[in-house]
Design goal:
It contains three helices and five strands. It is α+β, with helices and mostly antiparallel strands. The strands form two sheets. It has a three-stranded antiparallel sheet with strand order 1-4-3, with no helix packed on it. The chain has a two-stranded antiparallel ribbon with strand order 2-5.
Length: 119
């Protein structure tokens, strides 16, 4: 904690910190250190609520499981290859849709951008 004013315990379901209020911070063990209080954190969390999973995620996971089980059950490499291609396609679609769901990131009041835009 040396050099930081505050130490906050990360939420129990936190897998990775994405952003912390645009404030300087450091993740150390299960703590996040910062000089700001309160500190609002955006993070990737462990979601154990299967009912909340996106339909596209479920489709990709289903295809992945089918690919893993295809050869042990059928002894057919073509069945494995088919389900692996299906998984890759389902994952591509899910990532594409997910990338379009959020609002675009803004660059804020950056002087370099203002100059380029004639501002």
């Amino acid at each position: 904690m040396y050099g930081w004013t505050y130490a906050f315990l990360l939420p129990a379901d936190c897998l990775r910190v994405l952003d912390a209020d645009d404030a300087e911070h450091k993740v150390e063990g299960r703590n996040i250190l910062a000089d700001t209080n309160p500190l609002y954190v955006r993070y990737v969390y462990r979601n154990d609520d299967v009912a909340s999973y996106d339909v596209l995620l479920i489709a990709a996971l289903t295809a992945a499981m089918a690919a893993e089980l295809a050869y042990p059950i059928t002894k057919s490499t073509s069945a494995h290859d088919f389900f692996m291609r299906l998984y890759v396609e389902k994952l591509r679609v899910a990532r594409s849709v997910d990338g379009q769901e959020d609002s675009p990131d803004t660059f804020g009041d950056n002087p370099f951008i203002s100059v380029r835009n004639g501002g």
